[in-house]
Specification:
Keywords: Membrane, Transmembrane, Transmembrane helix. It comes from Kribbella shirazensis. This is SnoaL-like domain-containing protein. The protein is globular. It is α+β, with helices and mostly antiparallel strands. The protein contains five helices and seven strands, in the order H-H-E-E-H-E-E-E-E-E-H-H. The chain has a domain of 102 residues: Nuclear Transport Factor 2, Chain: A (Roll). Strands 1, 2, 3, 4, 5, 6 and 7 form a seven-stranded mixed sheet that branches. Helix 3 packs across helix 4 and helix 4 packs antiparallel against helix 5.
């Protein structure tokens, strides 16, 4: 896990590729309806992730059998993000499953407005990427606004 943490802090998708099993599955923090499957797709996704995240800082990992977890902090469009990576490895130590959990909601919404348009443009073309950006931007704005106002009413 130290190699994964170091690659994440450097934003090095090629180094992550060396840690992944060919059949790796990445579970999106944005929706349960989408997984990224296979080393090439997961590496391409990490290139997109590293293009939008800034100042990635990781914590010491936790380990239980073939499963590892570590948290990280980063910024997306200047919004602080906290996340937890959960990785399951095969007998050879390669990552076969990677799940990411993100909080708080405004940072998740900002990531939703930033990352899917980039991924959609790469996978489906710039028109679809633009459409996804138009759909996601109001959501990020709404959640950032609610985050600022909600504490006054609770």
């Amino acid at each position: 896990m130290d190699a994964l943490r170091a690659a994440g802090e450097r934003g090095d998708a090629d180094a992550i590729a060396e840690l992944l099993a060919p059949e790796v599955v990445f579970h999106s923090p944005l929706t349960s309806r989408l997984t990224f499957e296979g080393r090439d797709e997961v590496v391409a996704l990490h290139r997109d992730i590293f293009a939008v995240l800034e100042d990635v800082r990781t914590s010491e990992p936790l380990e239980s059998g073939d499963t590892y977890a570590f948290s990280f902090h980063a910024r997306v469009r200047g919004v602080e993000l906290e996340a937890m990576n959960l990785a399951r490895c095969d007998d050879q130590g390669r990552i076969v499953e990677l799940t990411v959990f993100i909080r708080p909601l405004p940072s998740l919404a900002t990531l939703f407005a930033t990352l899917p348009p980039r991924v959609s443009a790469r996978r489906r073309g710039p028109v679809v990427g633009g459409l996804v950006a138009c759909l996601a931007a109001p959501l990020a704005f709404a959640f950032r606004t609610a985050d600022r106002l909600a504490p006054r009413f609770l």
